Amino acid sequence: MKSLYSKFLIFTLVIMLTSALVAFLAVNTFYHQTLKAANDEKNMEIVKSFVSYVESTKENDLKQFLQTQADAGYKLIAINEKREKETYGTPFRVDNLSPQNIDRVLKGEDYHGMKHFPTETFMTGFFADESANTVGTSFTYNGMNYALFLRPDIKFLFTEVHFLLAGMIVTMAILSLLAMLFMAKKLIEPIVKLTEATKRVGEEKFTDPLQIDRKDEIGQLAQSFQLMTERLGENDRIRKEFINNVSHDFQTPLLNIKGYANLIENDPPAVERKNYAKVIQAETERLSALTKQLMLLTSLDQLLSPLQLKTFRLDEQLKETIRRYRWALEEKEMSLSLELDEIELQGDPAFLEKVWANLLSNAIKYTETGGSIEITLTEQDNTVIATFCDTGIGIPEEKIGRIFERFYRVDDSRTKEIGGSGLGLAIVRQVVELHGGNITAKRNGQQGMTFIISLPKL
Ligand code: ADP
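The line above is the sequence of Heme sensor protein HssS; the predicted C-alpha coordinates follow.
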Protein backbone atom coordinates (compact mmCIF):
# COMPACT_ATOMS: atom_id res chain seq x y z
CA MET A 1 0.00 0.00 0.00
CA LYS A 2 1.45 3.34 -1.03
CA SER A 3 1.32 6.10 1.57
CA LEU A 4 -0.68 9.23 0.83
CA TYR A 5 2.59 11.17 0.83
CA SER A 6 4.28 9.03 -1.82
CA LYS A 7 1.09 9.12 -3.90
CA PHE A 8 1.12 12.91 -3.70
CA LEU A 9 4.83 12.98 -4.62
CA ILE A 10 4.31 10.74 -7.65
CA PHE A 11 1.22 12.66 -8.68
CA THR A 12 3.07 16.00 -8.50
CA LEU A 13 6.03 14.68 -10.49
CA VAL A 14 3.72 13.19 -13.13
CA ILE A 15 1.87 16.52 -13.41
CA MET A 16 5.13 18.46 -13.75
CA LEU A 17 6.57 16.11 -16.36
CA THR A 18 3.32 15.94 -18.33
CA SER A 19 2.95 19.71 -18.37
CA ALA A 20 6.59 20.09 -19.45
CA LEU A 21 5.99 17.61 -22.27
CA VAL A 22 2.75 19.29 -23.36
CA ALA A 23 4.46 22.71 -23.29
CA PHE A 24 7.36 21.35 -25.36
CA LEU A 25 5.00 19.84 -27.94
CA ALA A 26 3.01 23.09 -28.12
CA VAL A 27 6.16 25.19 -28.64
CA ASN A 28 7.37 22.68 -31.22
CA THR A 29 4.16 22.88 -33.21
CA PHE A 30 4.34 26.66 -33.06
CA TYR A 31 7.91 26.48 -34.40
CA HIS A 32 6.92 24.30 -37.34
CA GLN A 33 3.73 26.18 -38.15
CA THR A 34 4.97 29.75 -37.82
CA LEU A 35 8.45 30.35 -36.53
CA LYS A 36 10.41 28.30 -39.07
CA ALA A 37 9.15 30.27 -42.11
CA ALA A 38 9.34 33.59 -40.25
CA ASN A 39 12.94 32.89 -39.28
CA ASP A 40 13.80 32.02 -42.86
CA GLU A 41 12.17 35.23 -44.09
CA LYS A 42 13.93 37.37 -41.48
CA ASN A 43 17.35 35.94 -42.36
CA MET A 44 16.58 36.27 -46.07
CA GLU A 45 16.00 39.99 -45.51
CA ILE A 46 19.35 40.24 -43.74
CA VAL A 47 21.27 38.45 -46.46
CA LYS A 48 19.49 40.59 -49.07
CA SER A 49 20.51 43.75 -47.24
CA PHE A 50 24.12 42.51 -47.18
CA VAL A 51 24.22 41.84 -50.90
CA SER A 52 22.52 45.10 -51.80
CA TYR A 53 25.13 46.91 -49.69
CA VAL A 54 27.95 45.08 -51.46
CA GLU A 55 26.47 45.77 -54.90
CA SER A 56 25.74 49.45 -54.20
CA THR A 57 29.17 50.35 -52.79
CA LYS A 58 31.62 49.21 -55.47
CA GLU A 59 34.91 50.11 -53.79
CA ASN A 60 34.04 47.99 -50.74
CA ASP A 61 36.35 45.14 -49.68
CA LEU A 62 34.09 42.08 -49.81
CA LYS A 63 36.15 39.90 -47.50
CA GLN A 64 36.45 42.67 -44.95
CA PHE A 65 32.71 43.35 -45.07
CA LEU A 66 31.70 39.69 -44.67
CA GLN A 67 34.20 39.23 -41.83
CA THR A 68 32.67 42.21 -40.00
CA GLN A 69 29.18 40.64 -40.33
CA ALA A 70 30.55 37.31 -39.07
CA ASP A 71 31.97 39.09 -36.02
CA ALA A 72 28.55 40.60 -35.41
CA GLY A 73 27.07 37.08 -35.01
CA TYR A 74 26.54 35.46 -38.40
CA LYS A 75 27.98 32.47 -40.23
CA LEU A 76 28.49 33.16 -43.88
CA ILE A 77 29.58 31.17 -46.91
CA ALA A 78 30.49 33.04 -50.10
CA ILE A 79 30.96 30.99 -53.30
CA ASN A 80 31.93 32.46 -56.67
CA GLU A 81 31.33 31.17 -60.21
CA LYS A 82 34.61 29.26 -60.04
CA ARG A 83 33.22 27.40 -57.01
CA GLU A 84 35.80 29.07 -54.80
CA LYS A 85 34.39 28.96 -51.32
CA GLU A 86 35.10 31.24 -48.34
CA THR A 87 33.56 30.69 -44.90
CA TYR A 88 33.24 33.54 -42.36
CA GLY A 89 32.55 33.06 -38.65
CA THR A 90 32.89 29.78 -36.80
CA PRO A 91 32.82 26.95 -39.32
CA PHE A 92 29.61 24.87 -39.67
CA ARG A 93 29.55 21.60 -37.73
CA VAL A 94 28.26 19.86 -40.86
CA ASP A 95 28.89 21.22 -44.31
CA ASN A 96 26.10 19.65 -46.36
CA LEU A 97 25.11 22.39 -48.73
CA SER A 98 24.47 20.56 -52.01
CA PRO A 99 26.21 21.67 -55.26
CA GLN A 100 22.79 21.79 -56.97
CA ASN A 101 21.58 24.36 -54.47
CA ILE A 102 24.78 26.35 -54.91
CA ASP A 103 24.27 26.27 -58.70
CA ARG A 104 20.68 27.40 -58.39
CA VAL A 105 21.66 30.38 -56.25
CA LEU A 106 24.50 31.31 -58.63
CA LYS A 107 21.87 31.34 -61.37
CA GLY A 108 19.86 33.88 -59.42
CA GLU A 109 17.41 31.79 -57.36
CA ASP A 110 16.96 32.36 -53.64
CA TYR A 111 17.73 29.46 -51.31
CA HIS A 112 15.31 28.81 -48.39
CA GLY A 113 17.22 26.08 -46.47
CA MET A 114 15.93 27.23 -43.07
CA LYS A 115 12.28 26.96 -44.12
CA HIS A 116 12.73 23.52 -45.70
CA PHE A 117 15.15 22.10 -43.18
CA PRO A 118 13.90 18.51 -42.60
CA THR A 119 13.16 18.34 -38.84
CA GLU A 120 9.60 17.09 -38.62
CA THR A 121 9.36 16.26 -34.95
CA PHE A 122 11.41 18.63 -32.95
CA MET A 123 12.47 22.20 -33.13
CA THR A 124 16.13 21.15 -33.21
CA GLY A 125 16.24 22.58 -36.74
CA PHE A 126 16.29 25.97 -35.14
CA PHE A 127 19.69 25.12 -33.65
CA ALA A 128 21.11 22.73 -36.30
CA ASP A 129 24.62 23.98 -37.13
CA GLU A 130 24.62 22.80 -40.76
CA SER A 131 25.40 24.70 -43.90
CA ALA A 132 22.18 23.35 -45.49
CA ASN A 133 20.28 25.16 -42.70
CA THR A 134 20.89 28.59 -44.20
CA VAL A 135 19.30 31.09 -46.54
CA GLY A 136 21.10 32.10 -49.69
CA THR A 137 20.98 34.65 -52.47
CA SER A 138 23.23 35.81 -55.30
CA PHE A 139 25.11 39.03 -55.99
CA THR A 140 27.72 40.41 -58.38
CA TYR A 141 31.03 41.67 -57.17
CA ASN A 142 33.82 42.92 -59.40
CA GLY A 143 31.97 41.47 -62.40
CA MET A 144 31.74 37.99 -60.92
CA ASN A 145 28.64 36.13 -59.72
CA TYR A 146 28.57 35.08 -56.11
CA ALA A 147 26.26 33.01 -53.94
CA LEU A 148 26.04 34.11 -50.31
CA PHE A 149 24.62 31.74 -47.63
CA LEU A 150 23.85 32.94 -44.11
CA ARG A 151 22.51 31.86 -40.73
CA PRO A 152 22.87 33.40 -37.28
CA ASP A 153 25.56 32.00 -35.02
CA ILE A 154 23.85 30.00 -32.23
CA LYS A 155 26.49 31.23 -29.79
CA PHE A 156 25.18 34.75 -30.24
CA LEU A 157 21.56 33.65 -30.05
CA PHE A 158 21.95 32.74 -26.39
CA THR A 159 22.43 35.94 -24.51
CA GLU A 160 22.66 36.51 -20.73
CA VAL A 161 18.92 37.17 -20.68
CA HIS A 162 18.26 33.65 -21.95
CA PHE A 163 20.46 32.15 -19.25
CA LEU A 164 18.71 34.30 -16.64
CA LEU A 165 15.28 33.14 -17.87
CA ALA A 166 16.35 29.48 -17.93
CA GLY A 167 17.73 29.83 -14.39
CA MET A 168 14.48 31.43 -13.29
CA ILE A 169 12.39 28.58 -14.75
CA VAL A 170 14.57 25.88 -13.15
CA THR A 171 14.55 27.71 -9.76
CA MET A 172 10.76 28.10 -9.99
CA ALA A 173 10.30 24.41 -10.77
CA ILE A 174 12.55 23.30 -7.88
CA LEU A 175 10.99 25.74 -5.43
CA SER A 176 7.42 24.82 -6.35
CA LEU A 177 8.25 21.12 -6.05
CA LEU A 178 9.76 21.67 -2.60
CA ALA A 179 6.83 23.86 -1.53
CA MET A 180 4.38 21.20 -2.69
CA LEU A 181 6.22 18.50 -0.78
CA PHE A 182 6.19 20.68 2.34
CA MET A 183 2.48 21.39 1.90
CA ALA A 184 1.75 17.70 1.42
CA LYS A 185 3.62 16.87 4.61
CA LYS A 186 1.68 19.52 6.52
CA LEU A 187 -1.57 18.24 5.03
CA ILE A 188 -0.86 14.64 5.88
CA GLU A 189 0.46 15.28 9.40
CA PRO A 190 -3.02 15.69 10.99
CA ILE A 191 -4.29 12.62 9.13
CA VAL A 192 -1.49 10.60 10.70
CA LYS A 193 -2.44 12.05 14.10
CA LEU A 194 -6.09 11.20 13.46
CA THR A 195 -5.18 7.63 12.54
CA GLU A 196 -3.23 7.25 15.79
CA ALA A 197 -6.15 8.73 17.70
CA THR A 198 -8.61 6.25 16.14
CA LYS A 199 -6.29 3.44 17.24
CA ARG A 200 -6.32 4.81 20.79
CA VAL A 201 -10.13 5.00 20.73
CA GLY A 202 -10.16 1.41 19.47
CA GLU A 203 -8.23 0.50 22.61
CA GLU A 204 -10.86 2.33 24.70
CA LYS A 205 -8.51 5.19 25.59
CA PHE A 206 -10.71 8.26 25.42
CA THR A 207 -8.67 10.73 27.40
CA ASP A 208 -5.89 12.07 25.13
CA PRO A 209 -7.15 15.18 23.35
CA LEU A 210 -6.28 15.60 19.66
CA GLN A 211 -3.66 18.30 19.10
CA ILE A 212 -4.97 19.56 15.76
CA ASP A 213 -5.64 23.25 15.62
CA ARG A 214 -6.85 23.99 12.11
CA LYS A 215 -9.85 25.72 10.62
CA ASP A 216 -10.05 23.82 7.30
CA GLU A 217 -11.92 20.58 6.47
CA ILE A 218 -9.30 18.46 8.26
CA GLY A 219 -9.68 20.72 11.30
CA GLN A 220 -13.45 20.18 11.17
CA LEU A 221 -12.95 16.44 10.87
CA ALA A 222 -10.60 16.51 13.87
CA GLN A 223 -13.15 18.55 15.82
CA SER A 224 -15.96 16.09 15.03
CA PHE A 225 -13.67 13.22 15.92
CA GLN A 226 -12.76 14.90 19.22
CA LEU A 227 -16.45 15.42 19.96
CA MET A 228 -17.21 11.81 19.09
CA THR A 229 -14.36 10.61 21.33
CA GLU A 230 -15.62 12.73 24.22
CA ARG A 231 -19.12 11.29 23.79
CA LEU A 232 -17.75 7.75 23.59
CA GLY A 233 -15.69 8.45 26.70
CA GLU A 234 -18.74 9.80 28.48
CA ASN A 235 -20.80 6.78 27.39
CA ASP A 236 -18.04 4.50 28.57
CA ARG A 237 -17.98 6.26 31.94
CA ILE A 238 -21.80 6.01 32.20
CA ARG A 239 -21.71 2.34 31.21
CA LYS A 240 -19.11 1.52 33.87
CA GLU A 241 -20.98 3.57 36.48
CA PHE A 242 -24.19 1.82 35.45
CA ILE A 243 -22.66 -1.64 35.90
CA ASN A 244 -21.23 -0.53 39.21
CA ASN A 245 -24.61 0.77 40.37
CA VAL A 246 -26.45 -2.33 39.18
CA SER A 247 -24.01 -4.58 41.03
CA HIS A 248 -24.31 -2.48 44.14
CA ASP A 249 -28.11 -2.40 43.99
CA PHE A 250 -28.26 -6.15 43.61
CA GLN A 251 -25.63 -6.80 46.22
CA THR A 252 -27.40 -5.04 49.13
CA PRO A 253 -30.74 -6.93 49.01
CA LEU A 254 -28.90 -10.20 48.31
CA LEU A 255 -26.75 -9.69 51.41
CA ASN A 256 -29.87 -8.91 53.43
CA ILE A 257 -31.60 -12.04 52.14
CA LYS A 258 -28.56 -14.15 52.93
CA GLY A 259 -28.25 -12.66 56.44
CA TYR A 260 -31.90 -13.17 57.33
CA ALA A 261 -31.95 -16.67 55.84
CA ASN A 262 -29.00 -17.52 58.12
CA LEU A 263 -30.91 -16.17 61.10
CA ILE A 264 -33.96 -18.28 60.23
CA GLU A 265 -31.71 -21.32 60.01
CA ASN A 266 -30.85 -20.85 63.70
CA ASP A 267 -34.51 -21.44 64.61
CA PRO A 268 -35.46 -18.06 66.14
CA PRO A 269 -38.78 -17.53 68.00
CA ALA A 270 -41.84 -17.59 65.77
CA VAL A 271 -42.44 -13.79 65.84
CA GLU A 272 -38.87 -13.02 64.80
CA ARG A 273 -38.95 -15.69 62.13
CA LYS A 274 -42.05 -14.05 60.68
CA ASN A 275 -40.32 -10.64 60.65
CA TYR A 276 -37.23 -12.08 58.98
CA ALA A 277 -39.38 -13.78 56.35
CA LYS A 278 -41.10 -10.42 55.71
CA VAL A 279 -37.72 -8.74 55.16
CA ILE A 280 -36.69 -11.49 52.76
CA GLN A 281 -39.98 -11.08 50.90
CA ALA A 282 -39.55 -7.28 50.70
CA GLU A 283 -35.99 -7.61 49.46
CA THR A 284 -37.03 -10.17 46.84
CA GLU A 285 -39.73 -7.79 45.64
CA ARG A 286 -37.17 -5.00 45.47
CA LEU A 287 -34.90 -7.19 43.37
CA SER A 288 -37.76 -8.19 41.14
CA ALA A 289 -38.83 -4.54 40.66
CA LEU A 290 -35.24 -3.55 39.91
CA THR A 291 -34.88 -6.32 37.35
CA LYS A 292 -38.12 -5.27 35.67
CA GLN A 293 -36.96 -1.63 35.50
CA LEU A 294 -33.59 -2.67 34.06
CA MET A 295 -35.26 -4.85 31.46
CA LEU A 296 -37.55 -1.98 30.53
CA LEU A 297 -34.61 0.41 30.18
CA THR A 298 -32.67 -2.05 28.07
CA SER A 299 -35.60 -2.60 25.77
CA LEU A 300 -36.04 1.17 25.48
CA ASP A 301 -32.33 1.54 24.72
CA GLN A 302 -32.18 -1.13 22.10
CA LEU A 303 -35.63 -0.39 20.87
CA LEU A 304 -36.21 -4.13 20.81
CA SER A 305 -39.84 -3.33 21.42
CA PRO A 306 -40.45 -0.24 19.31
CA LEU A 307 -43.48 1.81 20.08
CA GLN A 308 -46.73 -0.02 19.42
CA LEU A 309 -48.79 2.99 18.48
CA LYS A 310 -52.47 3.08 19.28
CA THR A 311 -55.03 5.84 19.59
CA PHE A 312 -56.48 5.83 23.07
CA ARG A 313 -58.03 8.05 25.72
CA LEU A 314 -55.17 9.43 27.79
CA ASP A 315 -57.42 10.79 30.59
CA GLU A 316 -58.90 7.35 31.06
CA GLN A 317 -55.48 5.73 31.26
CA LEU A 318 -54.45 8.29 33.90
CA LYS A 319 -57.61 7.61 35.94
CA GLU A 320 -56.93 3.88 35.77
CA THR A 321 -53.36 4.38 37.04
CA ILE A 322 -54.61 6.57 39.88
CA ARG A 323 -57.14 3.89 40.78
CA ARG A 324 -54.31 1.39 41.24
CA TYR A 325 -52.55 3.75 43.66
CA ARG A 326 -55.71 4.62 45.59
CA TRP A 327 -54.72 2.40 48.54
CA ALA A 328 -51.27 4.11 48.84
CA LEU A 329 -52.93 7.54 48.81
CA GLU A 330 -55.37 6.45 51.47
CA GLU A 331 -52.64 4.89 53.56
CA LYS A 332 -50.80 8.24 53.63
CA GLU A 333 -54.05 10.20 54.02
CA MET A 334 -53.25 12.28 50.95
CA SER A 335 -55.72 14.36 49.01
CA LEU A 336 -55.76 14.20 45.23
CA SER A 337 -57.23 16.76 42.86
CA LEU A 338 -57.76 15.93 39.22
CA GLU A 339 -58.42 18.20 36.26
CA LEU A 340 -58.37 15.95 33.23
CA ASP A 341 -59.67 17.04 29.83
CA GLU A 342 -60.94 14.33 27.55
CA ILE A 343 -57.93 13.73 25.31
CA GLU A 344 -57.24 11.20 22.63
CA LEU A 345 -53.60 10.52 21.83
CA GLN A 346 -51.68 8.28 19.50
CA GLY A 347 -48.95 6.59 21.50
CA ASP A 348 -47.79 3.39 23.13
CA PRO A 349 -50.19 2.85 26.03
CA ALA A 350 -47.99 0.25 27.75
CA PHE A 351 -44.98 2.59 27.91
CA LEU A 352 -46.99 5.71 28.73
CA GLU A 353 -48.63 3.87 31.61
CA LYS A 354 -45.11 3.53 33.14
CA VAL A 355 -44.72 7.31 32.91
CA TRP A 356 -47.87 8.06 34.93
CA ALA A 357 -47.18 5.25 37.40
CA ASN A 358 -43.64 6.48 38.09
CA LEU A 359 -44.62 10.13 38.45
CA LEU A 360 -47.56 9.29 40.72
CA SER A 361 -45.62 6.83 42.86
CA ASN A 362 -42.80 9.39 43.25
CA ALA A 363 -45.29 12.09 44.26
CA ILE A 364 -46.70 9.71 46.90
CA LYS A 365 -43.28 8.44 48.01
CA TYR A 366 -41.72 11.86 48.47
CA THR A 367 -44.69 13.56 50.11
CA GLU A 368 -45.34 13.33 53.83
CA THR A 369 -48.55 11.95 55.29
CA GLY A 370 -51.43 14.37 54.86
CA GLY A 371 -49.93 16.11 51.81
CA SER A 372 -51.69 16.68 48.53
CA ILE A 373 -51.24 15.93 44.86
CA GLU A 374 -52.70 17.71 41.86
CA ILE A 375 -52.80 16.22 38.39
CA THR A 376 -53.93 18.09 35.27
CA LEU A 377 -54.25 17.06 31.64
CA THR A 378 -54.87 19.66 28.94
CA GLU A 379 -54.27 20.23 25.27
CA GLN A 380 -52.69 23.32 23.70
CA ASP A 381 -51.79 23.80 20.03
CA ASN A 382 -51.79 20.10 19.24
CA THR A 383 -49.64 19.34 22.29
CA VAL A 384 -50.87 17.38 25.28
CA ILE A 385 -49.64 18.73 28.59
CA ALA A 386 -49.78 16.69 31.81
CA THR A 387 -48.65 18.12 35.16
CA PHE A 388 -47.98 16.31 38.44
CA CYS A 389 -47.75 18.72 41.34
CA ASP A 390 -47.13 17.62 44.97
CA THR A 391 -46.55 19.23 48.34
CA GLY A 392 -43.67 16.89 49.18
CA ILE A 393 -40.08 17.31 50.24
CA GLY A 394 -39.01 18.73 46.88
CA ILE A 395 -35.62 18.58 45.23
CA PRO A 396 -32.84 21.15 45.79
CA GLU A 397 -32.60 23.48 42.79
CA GLU A 398 -28.99 22.49 41.96
CA LYS A 399 -29.89 18.78 41.79
CA ILE A 400 -32.94 19.04 39.51
CA GLY A 401 -30.69 18.85 36.42
CA ARG A 402 -29.55 15.33 37.33
CA ILE A 403 -32.72 13.57 38.43
CA PHE A 404 -33.34 12.08 34.96
CA GLU A 405 -29.99 10.29 34.98
CA ARG A 406 -29.93 6.56 35.55
CA PHE A 407 -29.44 5.60 39.21
CA TYR A 408 -29.36 9.19 40.33
CA ARG A 409 -30.92 9.57 43.76
CA VAL A 410 -31.12 13.01 45.27
CA ASP A 411 -30.32 11.84 48.75
CA ASP A 412 -29.20 8.27 49.18
CA SER A 413 -30.24 8.08 52.81
CA ARG A 414 -33.81 9.29 52.26
CA THR A 415 -34.38 7.10 49.17
CA LYS A 416 -32.92 4.01 50.75
CA GLU A 417 -35.55 4.19 53.47
CA ILE A 418 -38.26 4.58 50.87
CA GLY A 419 -36.68 2.06 48.54
CA GLY A 420 -36.05 3.90 45.27
CA SER A 421 -33.70 2.66 42.57
CA GLY A 422 -33.04 5.95 40.78
CA LEU A 423 -34.24 4.44 37.52
CA GLY A 424 -37.88 5.64 37.50
CA LEU A 425 -37.36 9.14 36.09
CA ALA A 426 -34.77 7.86 33.59
CA ILE A 427 -37.45 5.53 32.21
CA VAL A 428 -40.01 8.36 32.21
CA ARG A 429 -37.76 10.69 30.21
CA GLN A 430 -36.84 8.01 27.70
CA VAL A 431 -40.47 7.04 27.03
CA VAL A 432 -41.52 10.70 26.71
CA GLU A 433 -38.67 11.43 24.30
CA LEU A 434 -39.49 8.32 22.24
CA HIS A 435 -42.94 9.89 21.80
CA GLY A 436 -41.28 13.11 20.59
CA GLY A 437 -42.14 14.96 23.81
CA ASN A 438 -40.20 16.39 26.72
CA ILE A 439 -40.32 16.54 30.50
CA THR A 440 -39.27 19.29 32.90
CA ALA A 441 -39.25 19.51 36.69
CA LYS A 442 -39.49 22.62 38.85
CA ARG A 443 -39.87 23.46 42.50
CA ASN A 444 -43.21 24.78 43.76
CA GLY A 445 -42.04 27.79 45.70
CA GLN A 446 -41.45 26.57 49.25
CA GLN A 447 -42.90 23.07 49.08
CA GLY A 448 -43.01 20.21 46.63
CA MET A 449 -42.32 19.61 42.98
CA THR A 450 -44.12 19.94 39.68
CA PHE A 451 -43.33 17.67 36.75
CA ILE A 452 -44.56 18.88 33.35
CA ILE A 453 -44.79 16.51 30.40
CA SER A 454 -45.62 17.68 26.92
CA LEU A 455 -46.44 15.17 24.19
CA PRO A 456 -47.09 16.14 20.58
CA LYS A 457 -50.28 14.70 19.09
CA LEU A 458 -48.74 12.56 16.35
P1 ADP B 1 -36.38 6.54 42.64
O1 ADP B 1 -36.70 5.18 42.22
O2 ADP B 1 -35.21 6.65 43.56
O3 ADP B 1 -37.56 7.31 43.08
P2 ADP B 1 -36.44 8.25 40.33
O4 ADP B 1 -35.63 8.19 39.14
O5 ADP B 1 -37.91 8.06 40.18
O6 ADP B 1 -35.82 7.20 41.31
O7 ADP B 1 -36.20 9.63 41.03
C1 ADP B 1 -34.86 10.12 41.17
C2 ADP B 1 -34.73 10.96 42.38
O8 ADP B 1 -35.52 12.16 42.28
C3 ADP B 1 -35.29 10.26 43.60
O9 ADP B 1 -34.24 9.59 44.27
C4 ADP B 1 -35.83 11.38 44.46
O10 ADP B 1 -34.84 11.82 45.39
C5 ADP B 1 -36.11 12.50 43.49
N1 ADP B 1 -37.57 12.68 43.23
C6 ADP B 1 -38.29 12.14 42.24
N2 ADP B 1 -39.58 12.56 42.28
C7 ADP B 1 -39.68 13.39 43.35
C8 ADP B 1 -40.75 14.13 43.94
N3 ADP B 1 -41.98 14.13 43.44
N4 ADP B 1 -40.46 14.86 45.03
C9 ADP B 1 -39.21 14.88 45.55
N5 ADP B 1 -38.16 14.21 45.05
C10 ADP B 1 -38.38 13.46 43.97
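Note on the example: The two ends are 53 Å apart (CA to CA). The longest strand covers residues 144-152.
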